[in-house]
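Sanity check

After download, print the first record. It should look like this:
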Amino acid sequence: MTSGARLKRDIGFFGAAFLVLNSVIGAGIFALPGKVAVSAGLFSPWLFLVVGVLFLSVVLTFAELASYYDNTGGPVLYAGDAFGPLVGFSTGWLIFLARMTAFAANANVMALYLASLHEVFAGQLARAAIITIVTIGLTWANVRGVKDGVRTMSVLTILKVVPLILLVLLGLQHVTGETLIPGGNFHIDDIGGTTLLLIYAYVGFETIGVTAGETRNPKRTVPIALVRTVLGTGLLYFLIVLVFISVISAESYADATLVDVGRALAGPAGAIIITLTAVFSIGGNLAGSMLAAPRLIFSLAENRLLPQWFAHINEKHSTPDRSILVMGAMALVLGLSSNFVDLAIGSSVVRLLGYIICIAALPVIRHNATPEVREQAWRLPGGYAIPLAAFFVCLWLVAQSKWEDWKKVSILLAIGVVLYLVEKWYYARK
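Expected structure tokens:
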């Protein structure tokens, strides 16, 4: 680490809330309603809400975990303090890979949405140019300072949330008693696969713990911003999907997106607005990933789990510049290649494995905390009831994955372990 340089606590409550919002709301909500509606029909809004409530147990567990820490790292610190450096490194490495591959995937989705706006954005050359400009632009903004990164993310948050709220307000007039409270038997085709698909709309919240070292009063700010934002997001999802099934006919569920809802409500102008909203939504998600994921690499290096080169802090901007540049370079290579999709498929399993490890760490962290820290922590009611529910929710979701996903996870974990052992070998020789 560069001597004398320190990370600045420039992220306040709204910056933290925007970080959660952008990490959770990405490309998923613009495509998931139709896919879930094929299996759940008119019960889709309630399925989004029920799954959100169940997954809230995971969010609450992470909120308590975050309240014990005021430095950068999040899952790396939780797992490492409870189970040792190798587990801490593996958890941080896997979540970093999940975020980095998701960045590459979402950059491609942004290029696809822009291609639907005008033919000038279509074609492989245009796709490559869009991915390159977006990745380099966000990398540059975050190297310049966390304030610039948060400002970029905040602008994109407003540009994506406001149109979604307007979509809901325009669409509520089409909601009837039958769509709000459907009759008949509650039935979902392939409930395991459908739930695993739906949960993609809620993951990513753990990002906020990673940036605790740059957040003001993190032991209080992080838990409150985390829980309130995820609750608000779940309610927004419910209303969006309710409008979707109220506007789109059942036979069109499979191929419909929110762009079709916008077209039905406001004609071609509505379709363009929602398309741009999708672009801004994905852009906000990308900004959140570029802000948080490099801090995972930085934290691993700071804790001597990766070479110290990654722990460098820019003297002028007080940012982990090398970690940000590595994140940008890796995401750009994956985004421009055709192989990143295979990595993205296993990213959800990777993330859930990280969640399981962190949830299991809570009893150890509670026990080892000093009386002063324990007194100030954001303690969950009911003992271990909520963390236990969170553990089994994640375990059940992982059980819905396929063997192919586990092979990808094993390869990625092996690469990380090799890097970890190289650093330990080098440190032992000093």
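If your output differs, re-run the checksum step. Summary of this record's structure: The longest helix spans residues 258-302.
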